[in-house]
């Protein structure tokens, strides 16, 4: 059988990637310095979240309305 080769190239991170990385870094730092604040999602919290936004349709591809920001 023939040998497979892989070509790897560096790519510039997207702005969205940088934003996600910043959020994840913030969360990691917060967890590291305040682990006692971590709380598991329990049935009561999930029910409360669902009651607040459960029937809300969200299209993540639509930009936010300026008045809502």
UniProtKB/TrEMBL annotation:
Q: Which GO terms describe its molecular function?
A: DNA-binding transcription factor activity; toxin sequestering activity
- Pfam families in the cross-refs: PrlF_antitoxin
Lineage, top-rank taxon, reads: Bacteria
InterPro entries of this UniProt entry? PrlF_antitoxin
GO BP, sorted A to Z: regulation of cell growth
According to UniProt, the name of this protein is: Uncharacterized protein
Species in which this protein is naturally found: Pseudomonas vancouverensis
